Every structure is written in C-alpha cells, then in structure tokens.
C-alpha cells in the first residue's frame, strides 16, 4: 500500500503529487473508469466502441477526416492513449502492439554512433534487444549498476544520448533513484527513459522526478487479465511526442483496435486490482522472509531490502512482484515450481492469477551466463507475480510445494 509520509518526504514534489487531483480534478479511480470512454457521439455508448476498420473515407481527394488509416490512427486506440496519458500525468501517449514493440520503436530515436546507458539487471528481452539489434544499427549500450548514481555518471561519454531505467528491476526488484538519475541526465543534456511496467501508473509517477519518456508493457498490470499483449509510450513534451508518433506510424508498431479495447477495459479495474496485488505480495514476502528453505527474498517492502527507504519515498506502493532464491539452487527450484497447484508456471506477470517462473532458465535465458551472473540472477532464483487470490491459499500452496522439495 502507499507508504506513510514523513517530514522529509512531504517536501518533495512527488509527495505533493500523491495527494494532488488529476488535471480534470477527479480521483484516480474515477479517471480509470471514465477517461477515454465517452467517444461515441452518435449513440452515446456507455463503453468505448471498437472500430475494426483498416481505413476511413476521405471527404474528397487530399482531405481526410480525423482518421485516414488505422496504422496511423484509430478512435479506439486514441481513447486508450488519452486514458494512459492522463493516468501517467503526461500530455500524449502512443499505444503499441507489444511492450517490446514500444521499446523497439524508441531505439529508432538513436542513430549510429550514439551511446546509451542502462542497468545490468533489466528484463531479458530488453537486454537481448540492446545487445544484439542496437549494435547492428551502430548504437552502443553500456550496462552498469544503476543503483549507484555515481557509477551512472561515470559511464557517460561524449556520444552518450540517453539513460534507460528500469525500477523496480526485473527480476531482482532493485530500486533506482529516479530523482538522482534525472538530475545527472539534465546536467549532461541526456534524455531519460523508464520502463514503468512493474508498478504501473498507479504506484509510480516518473514524470514527477523529471523523467522524459515512460514505457509500459500494457500486457501486465494495466490490462491485468493475461488476455492481450500491448505496449505504450507516454510523453509530456510535444516535440518528443511528434517524433514518437512518426516512428510508431512509420514502423507500423501501433496496437489493433481490439487490443486497445481490451486494455482500456482492464484499466477500469486497475485501482482495485493493484490494491489486492500489493497486499497479497506483502503477505507472501513476509511468509518467505526467514523461511528455512529460502536463501534470500527480494521485495522492496521488506526493511531488509537495501533500497527500502528509497522505495518508500518514490513509490506509492511496493508492487505485486516478489522474487526469492531457494536453497538447493536450480534443481530445488524446479521441484518447487513443479509441485505448485494454484500458481501457474509461466512467464509474464501482472494478471489476476498468480504466475511463477525461474528467470535463469525462462525470462532471462537470452542473457549470457556472464550477464546473468553480473546482474545477480542465480539458477535458483524464482520470480512470483502475485495475483488477487486469497493470500492464505497462495501461502498454503507454497507450503505444500516446499514440503515436496525435501
């Protein structure tokens, strides 16, 4: 749940944003339900209509209406984009077909000879993109310990153009100081990008700390039902948005009207779902912490987490993700996840159902062994996406699985 405010945090802009109303002066829950919905001026539909059309009629040659071709724009997608921009405190959003397509689109903002800095413990798919495809286009990427702002600043070169942030990191839930990194970026005239997927727009407000561009895999908490894949790029600078809009259209990475409809439907229940995710994750983390068969628990809500105080300052909740290292390593982990009944062994996260996976052999297997070692991802690491089920049932499920590990 939202961290308690202290005298220190009350003075920050982010703390003020926690209690500030949205620009429309509506509560966050109200914005989730209503923003981007009332777009049907003909029949006054209570839900956002789906426009499953590839093209739109021109009034006459050379004179299109608000939309001309769905790759370039679609009313259903526009409704979702208006919703997400509002929820993140941005001015514009572009919805894409997947989270990775959103990230891939942004890499086209960089050109041959540019240098980018990112964390050494980011999502495996992003790491793969940065280590394989970016170099093909002449873009150099440095992977550093982003938890230390001094290390980040030291990595800056004459050709550095941007800093790519992921916080909490995937899968070890390390926390990056957004305000410190944003200050460094502005000092050196660099752009900042953040993957905000692990917390969503409800639990973390990167724009409040000076971040330039926010990226989401809407597949996760924003949609929340494991029935669609999608992404989003959110900005608050007109020039940046114009470039992003051009890239999404030119590359053809926009999401379909049906997918936009599903994500917009999921947004409506996000506040209620996130409360359950956060409460359940805290219960699971407390259960795992100190368990005789658990070597280490990764969860920013625990006081033992090295960035616990930072998480309390810059996050509005500790999220629904919990990771841990099981004693016995890979074999013990495989036996544990194989014995679970309620948890589903699967990649992805953020759905109403609890998912569990082993990053070393699943979500992060595209990283080299050396890269996984450097990031701190061990063979026995287990990542849990805690759903909205009854937490007692989830704990009993884990207890039965631990009993079978021996």
Please render the helix and strand layout as text.
Elements: H1 13-19, H2 28-34, H3 75-88, E1 92-96, H4 99-107, E2 115-119, H5 124-136, E3 140-144, H6 149-154, E4 160-166, H7 178-187, E5 191-195, H8 200-203, E6 213-217, E7 231-235, H9 238-251, H10 257-267, H11 270-288, E8 294-298, H12 308-314, E9 321-326, H13 329-339, E10 344-345, E11 355-357, H14 369-375, E12 381-385, H15 391-405
Parallel strand pairs: 2-3, 2-4, 4-5, 5-6, 10-11
Antiparallel strand pairs: 1-7, 6-7, 8-9, 9-12, 11-12
Helix pairs in contact: 3-10, 4-5, 13-15
Molecular structure report:
There is one protein chain. By secondary structure, this protein is an alpha/beta fold. Helices cover 38% and strands 14% of the residues. The chain is built from 15 helices and 12 strands. The relative contact order is 0.13. It is globular. A 7-stranded mixed sheet has the order 1-7-6-5-4-2-3, with helices on both faces. A 5-stranded mixed sheet has the order 8-9-12-11-10. α3 packs parallel to α10 and α4 runs parallel beside α5. It folds into 2 domains: 256 residues, Type I PLP-dependent aspartate aminotransferase-like (Major domain) (Aspartate Aminotransferase, domain 2, 3-Layer(aba) Sandwich); 135 residues, Aspartate Aminotransferase, domain 1 (Alpha-Beta Complex), CATH 3.90.1150.10. β2, α5 and β3 form a beta-alpha-beta unit. The N terminus is likely disordered.
